[in-house]
C-alpha cells in the first residue's frame, strides 16, 4: 500500500540517513544494533506488556538488560546507543552509565579513577546519582544532607537532618544500586565548604540489604517510567571512609586540612555529558513518533472525494499542518544536535589537552538552551503525533503514549527547562554587554545581538529567515535587559520582575541557532537533497517566526502583509513535503520492532494488526468470563434493594 508513496520520494534516501545520524559509520552502527534487537526473541515487542503489573514490567526489563549487555556496550556514547531502540522502557544501566560514570571521570582523582573505573564499567559496582532531595532539586547549593568530617576517625558522618533532606528521585536507587554518588554539604571543623559528591556503598554486597544507618526504597508509580526504580534514601549518622569524597578539586587530609585545587568549573563537564545525550539521542524519539503518525496518516482514510474515493488523512491540509512543521522541526533539531555534539567534544578536548576553558561558557549556554528547546520539542511532538492519529493514538498499541511518557520527564530532569533558559539568558546579557565594550570577544553564534533592524524584501528565504530570527532574539534580549535594569535590586528584579522577559528572549535563540545548522547542512549537498532540505528549513524557519515574533512586532520589523506571506508560503510548501513525507521519516531507518506500533508497519494491514492484538494477545481476554463479573452481580443486588 505504501510502495507508491515511497516511489514519490525525490531525494536519495541513504544520503539523508547518513545526514540524520552524522555519517555513514554512525548509521551502519545504528543498523547493526537495531538488527540485534530485531532478531533476538527477547526484544520482540509485545503490546500486552502494558497489561503487566509494574513488578512484572521491572523484572522483564531487567532480563532484557542482561540480554542486551551480552552483545552491546550500553555505555558507549560514540554510537547511537539503544535508548531509542529500547523495548518498552529504558534499560537499568542508563543512569549509571550516563550520569555516574561521567561524574566520576570529572570529579574523582586519578587514584580514585584507577581504583573504581574498571568495576564501574564492568558493572560490578553499580551506582546512582543521588543529588535531588524532597525539599530541593534545582537549587543544588541549598541541599541539606550533611557530611561532617570526624577528625577522631578520619571519616565523614553522612546525615539526613530532616524529612526535606531525604534524597528523592534518583533513578536506579530504589531497587538496584549498591553504591550512590551522594551530594552533601561538606563540613570540617564547623565550617561549610559547599556541596560535594561522596561515593558510598549503600547496600550490602552479599544480601543487597541497605547498610545499617541507611533507609532506601522506591518512590512509587509515576507518569510513565514504570520500569525505572526512582528511589528515596536517608542517612542516620552513616560513617563513610575518607576517600569516599571525590577529591579531584577538594581534598580533606586525615587531620582535617581542607585544600582546594584545579578549576572546579570542570564539574560542569558531567552535566554537559547527560544534556548532550538528551539533545543527541532523545531527539530521535520525536522522529519515531513522526514515523508512526505519517505512516498511519497514509493508511488511514476518512470521507470520500468527488470521485467517491476515500481520502488519506495525510491529504487533508489540516493534518499536514499538524505534522509537517514538526517534521521540519525534527530535522532542524537533529542537525542542531550534531553541531552541539561537535561543540561539546571540542570544549572537552581543549580543557583536557591544554587546560583551555575558552569554549566552556559558550558550550554551557548553547547546551542549556538546546536541552530546553529539544526536550520541549520531543514531548510536544509525541503529543501532537498522538492527537493526529485519532482514537488509535490513545492506545498503547500505537506506540505513541510510551514516547510521551518516557520523554516528558526530560523537561524537568538534568536541569529544569525554565531554569536552563534563564542560564542562557544570563549568557545572552553578557554578550549584549560585550557587543558594545569588547565586540571581538563575542562568539560568532552571538554576533546577531548587534542587530537593530533588518530590511528584507522576501521574508521567506532561508537567509532572511535567519536574519529575522536573530533580530527577534536580539530585540527580546534588549527588552529583557531594559526590564532587568529598570529596578535597583538586580537579584529581586531577576527573580520577580524580569523572569518572563529573560526566559522568553532565551527561548528564541535556539530556533536561530538551529537555522544556522540547517543552512550549514544544506550547503554542498546533492541537488535533490538540497532541494528538499531547503523546503524543510523554510517551513521550520517560518514556523518558528510565526510562533515567536513578539520581538519583531515590538519594533515594527514585521507587518501584517509579511505575516500573511509567511503563512501562505508555508502552506504552499506542504504539497512538496506531502510527496516526500514517507521517505523523510523512513530515512531514519527504524524497523517495525523499533517503532513498537501496530498502526504504522512498513507494510501490512493495520486493522488486522489491531484486531489480532485485541482478540488474541490482550491478556484481559484470556478468561472468557472475567472475575469482575461478580461485582456486576453485587451491583444488581444493591440496586434491587433500592
Ligand atoms: C524521571 C525523573 C528522574 C530523575 N532522576 C534523578 C536522578 O537520577 N538523580 C537526581 O538527583 N535527581 C533526579 N531527578 C530529579 C530532577 O533532577 C529534579 O526534579 C529537577 O532537577 C527539577 O528540580 P525540582 O524538582 O526541584 O523542581 P523545582 O526547581 O522545584 O521546579 C518547580 C517549578 O519551579 C520553577 N522554578 C524553580 N526555581 C526557579 C527559579 N530560580 N526561577 C524561575 N523558576 C523557578 C521551575 O521552573 C518549575 O516550574 C529526576 C526527576 C525525574 C522526574
UniProtKB/TrEMBL annotation:
Domain Acyl-coenzyme A oxidase N-terminal: 15-126
GO biological process: fatty acid beta-oxidation using acyl-CoA oxidase; lipid homeostasis
Boundaries of every Acyl-CoA oxidase C-alpha1 domain copy: 268-429
Domain Acyl-CoA oxidase C-terminal: 463-635
GO annotations of cellular component type: peroxisome
One Gene Ontology MF term: FAD binding
InterPro entries: ACOX_C_alpha1, Acyl-CoA_ox_N, Acyl-CoA_oxidase, Acyl-CoA_oxidase_C
Reactions catalysed according to its record: a 2,3-saturated acyl-CoA + O2 = a (2E)-enoyl-CoA + H2O2
Highest taxon listed in the record's lineage: Eukaryota
Main location: other
Keywords: FAD, Fatty acid metabolism, Flavoprotein, Lipid metabolism, Oxidoreductase, Peroxisome
Names of the cofactor(s): FAD
Oxidoreductase recorded as keyword: yes
Organism annotation: Paramecium octaurelia
Compartmental location: Peroxisome
Descriptive protein name: Acyl-coenzyme A oxidase
